[in-house]
Amino acid sequence: xxxxxxxxxSRTLAPADLLNASRRCDLIELCLDHFIAEPNVGDLLRIVDxxxxxxxRSVRDGGQWKGxxxxxxxxxxxxxxxGPAWIELDLEAAQSIPxxxxxxxxxxxxxxxxxxxxxxxxxEECRNAKADAVKFTWLTEDLDATWPxxxxxxxxxxxxxxxxxxxxSGLTFSLLGRKYGSPWIYAALERGxxxxxxxxxxxxxxxxxxxxxxxxxxxxLGIVGxxxxxxxTARVFNAAFQEMEKPIRCLxxxxxxxxxxxxxxxxxxxNALIVDPAWRGDLTSMITVPATADAGGSHPDVLMETSxxxxxxxxxxEAIDVVGRAVTGTDDWTGRGAVTILGQSxxxxxxxxxxxxxxxxxxxxxxxxxxxxxxxRKAGVRHVPWNAVFDLRADTVVIADFGTAxxxxxxxxxxxxxxxxxxxxxxxxxxxGSEFAREAALRGARYLDPTLVFVEQLKITFQLLxxxxxxxxxxxxxxxx
Length: 481
Description:
- Helix content is 34%, strand content 20%.
- The protein is an alpha/beta fold.
- It has 3 domains: 2-216, TIM Barrel, CATH 3.20.20; 228-313 and 460-480, Leucine Dehydrogenase, chain A, domain 1 (Rossmann fold), CATH 3.40.50; 317-448, NAD(P)-binding Rossmann-like Domain (Rossmann fold), CATH 3.40.50.720.
- An 8-stranded parallel β-sheet has the order 7-6-5-4-3-2-1-8. The protein has a 6-stranded parallel β-sheet with strand order 16-15-14-17-20-21, sandwiched between helices.
């Protein structure tokens, strides 16, 4: 069951919000703390035929209430008299507001500064406050912080428990809660109407993650990251799994302590991961199976669990090769002439090894000469000091580090390094536009669009994980949505 949170500020527009929400959910949470002027709760309850849960949260509990505590308690008392299906009461309020009529009570406890530690005792306090359901809300910035909340929701108890994860892993908790039997999960009606930062929208849950098809039998494919490419990967793969009638769905993950991560994956029965290229972390310590010649690099973007442990594969070099063949019109472009790698990241190391392995004369340069020199030594290629890099004549220039800015300022890459007839491999951005693309066009260079590389990576990854081609119809449907 899904509960859409509506946060109207206007008594005039509130009915529209309730009607819109009623078309997409099973339960509506009406947040009174966002109203500028006190609403008539009874009139609002009669607008829709879906059950309504009324809440009025203080700032301490993540709400927007501006009045006094006494006024908030009085508004909650009046709301109960109006007869909603549910009323949410924080633990303190629940102890002073008696049960009334047929309205059921969600007794809530929030901890927005750190994860909760004494779940059992708080649960008992909520039960003693005559709860019909207990709600926990706390900070979930990564999987470590999400774990206790998930344990609280999934542990068998005689009262149902619902939860809200506030933070970057809130969506992760919502999807896991759906799989493991949470009575309902919360969603915003649309962007700009969230009751807290990063709350998933009902559209995102439905269209991107197919929440209504998730059950106890669903297997999750983990996607490490929380950016645009993670979201599109999930949308494409979920559409493909749906078309193939496979009970597999994608789950966004942000690891906390890497040493705990494999154990959590085992308990969640997740045996494969896709790593968002924009994610700044490093999972190489998880890998226990030695890389093979076809692994593609030492910084994997796909991890798979085997009987011997976790192994990693990098798909980026293969994707770059495929896109480059189309752009240059030649199959052996990676081994031709001189290649300059601009960067000092693990990606730069992998690309240097890739191009050198194809037979190209590879040079590496970076903003930090020491870091770039270290990468060059590891790759067994030539290092060029940054003050000399613009004198190089290269057939291919690779901008290897994500986030490299185009410009003339300090810490930016001067676009004059791009010359006519060169091939430019741009990995500085994910799926957003790049100034290097415009500069390449102005200067008559061939340009490998990072979006095309990303699309090719999706195809390679899907084949790697499933042994099947990514369905074109599902691919087009997901991108169109």
